[in-house]
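Q: Got a minute? One more chain.
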Amino acid sequence: MGNQMPLLSICIPTCNRDSLLEIGLKNIIAEASPFGDEVEIVVADNASEDHTPQVVQTAGHPIVYGRQPEKVVFPRNLLFAACDLAKGEHVLLIGDDDLLVPGAVARILGLLKSRPDLDYLYLNVGWIHVKERNRVILEEGGHLPPDEDRKFQCDEHTTKVLPRLEDVVFCKGSDPYAMFSTIFCYVARRRLYLEGRPKLKIYDSFDDATQPLDNMFPHAKLTLGAMAGKPIGFIGQPTVMQGSYHQDWRKWIGKTMIYGHCMLFQWLETTPFAKDALEVLWEGLARMTGRLMVRMMDEPEENLGMDIIRREALPALVQRPTFWPSFTEDLRVWNETDYEAREMIRVAKALLTRPEMARARLGLWGVRGRGQ
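A: Always. Here it is, folded:
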């Protein structure tokens, strides 16, 4: 790096995922390297016990690297990356399992340069199975197959300036409840992290059952209150894909999505965040919760935290008009597919007891419509 402040810091908090980080760095370096000192890559190592330091050292590109002396909760490593290690004017935080879509950095820098007054850019984010993400980076140079290109948060694929942050909510085709929580990505002026850091109330516990809002969605707390009502940039072209379906906390996803969003929206009610957009978020959350509750009740051992949802979230959500139609429809589908599955099993067992079927094998796929 030269003496000039980078325009963009791409920050990657990581912990004990050296193989994912190694592949991710190939992708990020390919996107960032054409822009030289305008872009820096930052890795915040949360006391990893694997080969993370060696992965960074052998990446073949200058990387700002910092290591926690002992493991800390996620928001502390996030702040370590954005506040302590990064030096850029703007910060993009992404996971070690994510994918930068080719051209993403060029689009981000282009908008930052054309509109230097903007403190925040909302990026259209999608999701991809982490195995497919690895293959796309290693074999396709990050270029997505046509079917993956459709899996993005926002339906509008244009770049523009929105009059206020809240207008992002209306760029979504359906269920925008997750647009500011676990499934969202943005570029923010680094000053927002430095100013917001003292306001976060971080709970130093690794127990997923007791995580407060500031631990679950620190990025939302750091930026949404400060940016509410202000103009932002919007990059609707596919920009980042989040690697999914492998997280070690996946049994808590339902609790995080339902209860976490409830806490987030209740907090937003205390901020200048526009009420019309917040109402859309609440209705989307209630609709999603109605669908998700049926599946969570069906498999409680795979969905932890139901007691927290019933106690802390459902009293507010069941009053929303979108909850019950969503719940009853998903329950109807569940009952039908459950009955059909049991009937298929009964018929299959009867067939296999016949002498002429002694050597037969019958495979059933898609039980209850979920591939079990």
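A: The beta strands are 8-14, 39-45, 64-67, 90-93, 99-100, 120-129, 159-162, 185-189, 232-244.
Q: Perfect, thanks.
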